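Please decode residue identities from the backbone states below.
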């Protein structure tokens, strides 16, 4: 295989390690006497209903995995549920309804999400002490589980999210603000649950796996922090751009978030750390020496892309002088960067943080000859990168030669955050479709022997 093919293989191994169906199946055991979920044993004689709710890009796979784990058992007949997922993830399941919440590539709530969230709240409110509820939560859950406080509208909340995203605010700040404007985030969904036991199975898309941040923590109770939300918005210079209703609400007195009566259990079932380990194992199988960068990808995508390339360039000499008998070095990194699209003004193009990461590396070192034996790939493990159909992008000497032949001005594409257009013209996009998981992004860099840079 070529370097590019190897890079894709390694990246796919990382994605496969976060397979949502398998991750959930591993958490469930049911025999003739009891049901065990995430280590919690419930005697079947004491089990009422088994209600499944959820939201996120991995929701379809997680729900399918849960059904498969219980099919043929006494608990299967007590199973029902509702999970909000992206439109292109909907498929028929036997006991759990998958609700289309928003179009592919549009990671923000819609009126369909509001309807689906109300269905979930209604179901939770009808449960009783003997019942068990399982919450399936994954990346994208914030957009797919939405119920604004009565004082504001969905349009108001969208305006806040777009302003924060547009200025490059990290996920922690986004979730902090969104939680204050929600009836379900920050543990408020847990307060609505009347089951005796609420088990949350989580596929993490946040660095460090903080339960209060993943999907904005619908089952992780936190204190109201309207003052902190206002501080974020003021520091970002956004207060004057907010809808007046939002500002008035945040400046008002915070109310109690509700009392949680259910016993709460949380379990991380897949994460970026596990995917990086799987990618490293695949790199080793292919003959590379894997090196995982200890620091997570975070901050500006373009800055991280240039830094990643620099690390690869520094590794080139090491490949030539050591690691005999190997194909070279595989540099791996995981995390989630940001793109400040506001910097382009009204001239903003189309792309995503992974595509921008790779484009920035191409801009930093545009000579195809310098890229001999080097490949960089970065992709979202969910198969989505910004409002595009691509998961990310790859760059090697062949992509750079195509850029030169077509006279494309990569620096201009980067200035306009238009990486998708650049890589579409040069066959550099990575397109997978929905992967039914989401453990942030994976970046793969290969430094191999010269002459292996092409696609074959």
């Amino acid at each position: 295989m070529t370097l590019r093919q190897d890079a894709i293989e390694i990246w796919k191994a990382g994605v496969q390690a976060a397979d949502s169906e398998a991750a959930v199946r591993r958490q469930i055991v049911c025999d003739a006497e009891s049901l065990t979920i995430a280590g919690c044993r419930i005697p079947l004689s004491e089990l009422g209903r088994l209600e499944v709710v959820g939201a996120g890009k991995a929701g379809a796979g997680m729900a399918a995995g849960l059904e498969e784990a219980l099919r043929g058992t006494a608990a299967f007949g007590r199973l029902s549920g509702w999970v909000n997922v992206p439109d292109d993830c909907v498929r028929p399941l036997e006991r759990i309804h998958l609700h289309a919440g928003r179009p592919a590539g549009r990671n923000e709530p819609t009126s369909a999400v509001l309807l689906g969230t109300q269905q979930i709240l209604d179901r939770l409110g009808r449960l009783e002490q003997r019942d068990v509820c399982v919450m399936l939560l994954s990346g994208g859950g914030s957009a797919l589980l939405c119920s604004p406080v009565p004082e504001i509208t969905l349009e108001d909340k969208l305006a806040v999210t777009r302003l924060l995203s547009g200025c490059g605010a990290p996920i922690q700040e986004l979730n902090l603000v969104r939680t204050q404007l929600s009836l379900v985030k920050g543990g408020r969904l847990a307060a609505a649950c009347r089951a005796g036991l609420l088990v949350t199975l989580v596929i993490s898309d946040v660095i460090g796996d903080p339960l209060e941040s993943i999907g904005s923590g619908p089952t992780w109770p936190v204190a109201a922090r309207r003052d902190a939300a206002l501080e974020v918005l003021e520091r970002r210079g956004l207060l004057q751009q907010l809808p007046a209703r939002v500002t008035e609400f945040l400046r008002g007195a915070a109310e109690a978030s509700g009392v949680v009566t259910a016993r709460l259990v949380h379990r991380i079932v897949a994460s970026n750390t596990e995917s990086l380990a799987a990618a490293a194992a695949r790199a080793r199988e292919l003959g590379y020496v894997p090196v995982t960068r200890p620091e997570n990808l975070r901050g500006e995508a373009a800055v991280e892309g240039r830094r990643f390339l620099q690390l690869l360039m520094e590794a080139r000499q090491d490949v030539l002088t050591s690691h005999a008998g190997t194909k070279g070095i595989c540099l791996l990194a995981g995390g989630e960067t940001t793109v400040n699209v506001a910097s382009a003004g009204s001239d903003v193009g189309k792309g995503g943080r992974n595509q921008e990461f790779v484009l920035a590396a191409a801009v930093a070192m545009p000579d195809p000859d310098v890229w001999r034996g080097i490949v960089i790939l970065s992709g979202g493990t969910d198969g989505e990168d910004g409002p595009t159909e691509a998961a990310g992008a790859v760059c090697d000497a062949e992509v750079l030669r195509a850029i030169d032949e077509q006279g494309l001005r990569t620096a201009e594409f980067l200035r306009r955050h238009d990486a998708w257009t650049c890589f579409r013209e040069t066959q550099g996009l990575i397109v997978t479709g929905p992967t039914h998981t989401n453990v942030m992004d994976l970046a793969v860099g290969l430094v191999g022997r010269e002459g292996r840079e092409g696609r074959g």
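Observation: DSSP finds 16 helices and 15 strands in the chain.
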